[in-house]
Amino acid sequence: MDSKTLNVLEYPKILERLAGFCDFSASMELARGLDPTDSYDLAVSRLAETTEARKLLSIQDASIGAAHDVRPAADLAARNGVLDPHALLDVKSTLISCRELKKTFEKKEDEYPRLALIADGLPDTHGIVDAITRVLSDRGEVLDSASPTLADIRRKLKTAHDRLMSRLQKYVTDTKTVSMLQEPIITQRDGRYVIPLRAEFKGRIKSIIHDQSSSGATLFVEPLPVVEANNEIRELQLAERDEERRILAEVSSIVGAHASEIKYGVENLAVLDLAFAKAKYGEELKASEPMIHELKVESSKLKEQKPATFNLPTLKLIQARHPLLDSDAVVPIDVDPREGTRAIVITGPNTGGKTVSLKTVGLLVVMAQSGLHVPAQSGSELPFFKSVYADIGDEQSIEQSLSTFSGHITNIIRILKKIDHRSLVIFDELGSGTDPQEGAAIARAILSHLLDTNCMTLVATHYPELKTFAHSTDGVVNASLEFDIKTLRPTFKLTIGLPGRSNALAIAQKLGLPQSIIESARAEINPLDLRADKLLDDIRKERNRTSREREKLEKARVRLEKQTLELEKRLEKIEDERRETLAKARAEGELEVAVLKRNIDSLKSQLKKASQPLQAIKAIEAEMEKMEEKVEQPVERLTSNVERSTSNTALKLGERVTVGTLNAEGVVTALGESDAEVQIGTIRVRAKMSDLARVSKLQVEGQKPKVESRKLSNLQPSTLNVKTSPGMEMDLRGLMSEDALDKMERYLEQAYLAGLPWVRIIHGKGTGKLRQAVREALKGHAYVKSFEEGGHTEGGEGVTVVKLNAN
Fold first, then answer.
1. Does 303 have pLDDT greater than 80?
2. Model pTM greater than 0.70?
3. Cα–Cα distance, 254 to 714 (Å, whole number)
């Protein structure tokens, strides 16, 4: 790409912002040198990398971690150099980051193929991480365990140091010598331990003078009796240093043996970090991936085609924003000319946004071909250009020295020599800076030449001749930036298909120029031009009105869809609550009927044994059958005028359901035509479909409807010992042991009398005291057949499942 054009478009500022999202120096270097590619396949690959990175970052927080650019350290190690501890720690953290990223993408290779391909080039650790960990602490200190020799040296050094300190301590505590010291302390000079002797007592203590204070009042002396001890410490320190260097050299040699792979891995790590940086920058810009289209027409055939029949790939930018401007303040533009457009001529007032619009298009093209997502709505499309050229002479450009006519023409000549049908050319104020008539003629001639070249062209101008040229020439379209006459300010809105109209007379009148002068000036203008301006104004007003109405209708449509969806959800929730409440009540009734039936069977057995007539039970059985028929009636779903046409789907394997007769939740493990198998904790039961209800996330509120199956008044409780089920579980959490055991005793009695086969006691985990008390009470209990700890899905050790004796 043309370097001057990139500077004019302020692309280096984009790269500097991109570099700010990089995590280490190697990727920052890549970001600052990221040039737009002239290879279509590479551009597509770069955009795909950015898209994959944005998808990954939206799911998890991925980064290169604590990686560093360790290429210089690897080079030094390869030349048999010795790396310092901090350099080795950088190598370690970098290799750990590479290892983690490599593992991440090995698991997600199908989901992120391009990023996984980059991660495949990251280096293996080759035992380097373990070797560094073995000898260095996280603070960069060589560990005692790095070698037996080092451990022995440091042990001796500590002993010698303690012995020396003990001897020097006598000088600072002995009443005979302490008065001679400036301070009762032990300090160091030139690596040797000394004491601060007052100058007037020089010679009183036989010693070697190593230093004195700036005032000369204090001498730092080493008493002769400790000279050998100091010498020993110094020798051990030197031995320690040499051993540490030997250890570091040994580890550095391992790094040097894999230096090439490490450097290659750092380069791949930088590419991966750059992909993450592009993704983060795209998020900040609220950007989207553009579709880019390659132009596949041989240049030898271009001259054979008429301009009107030669179509470039689609240029379509929706709500495009300049990436360097504040996204909350900038006015987005739509650039969506009709098919076959090869040139757009933009007109409008000064400071109206023409230059920004040109730069926006050029910059977005360059960003897309660099693999960056562009600040525009999803669905934007761009042609792929082999080259981009721009001549923009505004005050924001670094080309200010070329803002004169000669400067512009010099740059235009340079550009015209390089362009072809695969180029994008952007000219700001084409033909300006000279006589208007001649400038307009040159501008038309240059634009005609660009059309003959079949390149894509964007031109900003004030010349009315170019408006006419655009209107009458195939492949060229007018565009304009609007101006608000009421506020005398530009709106920065780009309109494709309409040229800008002159607002000079309206502005002058608004600012207070005498009406007589306004009328005189209007008389000098061609009536056809005035009529054209009036027509343009009417068209623009009608277009704006239509646009506003369309926006209102769109907002109303979105609002209506949202309200309809909310209403459907609300009705769905109400219906689910109704059906769940009725199903729960019916399930309770079924459970009571089942318990009653069991008790009747037990009573019949007892009467047979006692040789008693069974007539008393027949009436109860008939009444129970009626109740059972009512209970088994299905709960129908109510219909509403907004209910969807689709019916409830059947139960599926793995769904969580409530077994009404047991008042317990479980998971469907097998399905039959009219029944299903449900796993409840460690127990599997078969239940009728009518007994099962999906577990709803909604909280059922309000009073449960009464179900006739619960009305047992017609039965004869004096004859039958029928008890209402207390439910399949009881929660004791939060109770003291004594209160909990009392509550459990009452519950077990009710469950036993109700004929429940098993129940769940919830006591929680906590300290385990309540669990122990519960299980001690269950041992040998009259109603309890056996008990066991709850399964993994039932609450584990926080629950005890109790199997009850048959009633």
1. no
2. no
3. 91
